[in-house]
Specification:
The chain is 3% helix and 49% strand. The protein is globular and about 40 Å long.
Length: 116
């Protein structure tokens, strides 16, 4: 059974930081790249950061240099450290395999709100 549980979101002022966590099923975590996605109101869900099995990472241009994705293989957990947050980072953040069609499932996500 797929399990994706995101946490760590909240309300933060522009320029602040948050660290998101995602506990994932071991069957997914150990076999696939994992990523953080986000969906802002009225917009499509987008992939913002990916960590591959060998710990190589990739970022969307909009977050490059500000966000850092990492994975703890012992805990089946993926993290997203978000620094220098901007109001346009406001969204619900989800973790999932990359590509997400591997699981066909979304967790509840965690809300990130960045105020001016």
């Amino acid at each position: 059974q797929v399990q994706l549980v995101e946490s760590g979101g909240g309300l933060v002022q522009a320029g602040g930081s948050l660290r998101l966590s995602c506990a994932a099923s071991g069957s997914i975590f150990s076999r696939y790249a994992m990523g953080w996605y986000r969906q802002a109101p009225g917009k499509q869900r987008e992939l913002v950061a990916t960590t591959f099995i060998g710990s190589t990472t990739n970022y969307a241009d909009s977050v490059k240099g500000r966000f850092t994705i990492s994975r703890d293989n012992a805990k089946n957990t993926v993290y997203l450290q978000m620094n220098s947050l901007k109001p346009e980072d406001t969204a619900v953040y989800y973790c999932n395999a990359v590509p997400f069609l591997i699981t066909g499932y979304w967790g509840q996500g965690t809300q990130v709100t960045v105020s001016l």
